[in-house]
């Protein structure tokens, strides 16, 4: 098994990942996302940089995720602050919904607030 390095008995089911090549195999419980360890045996998986990824983390490896709506940001026009990203329309005060692009704001656990609120 590629993950646990234990032998796989001949009567045990194994997972082969086509994108990894058929020389590699896993116990079904060992075929997990390299980021979150979610079991992938019954899910669509992605293969990148020699590892299996769940859909959520594979997409996050390519594009940022909006801290406001939790969706992937496909636009090149988005707002970034303190290592997080927002769609322009979601970069707004949590209380009064004023758009904050170009304005002072406070950030508390991914919650944005304008200076008034």
TrEMBL record:
Keywords: LIM domain, Metal-binding, Repeat, Zinc. Residues 1-63, 64-117 form the LIM zinc-binding domain. GO terms for molecular function: metal ion binding; transcription corepressor activity. GO terms for cellular component: nucleus. This is LMCD1 protein. It comes from Scopus umbretta. The lineage of its organism: Eukaryota, Metazoa, Chordata, Craniata, Vertebrata.
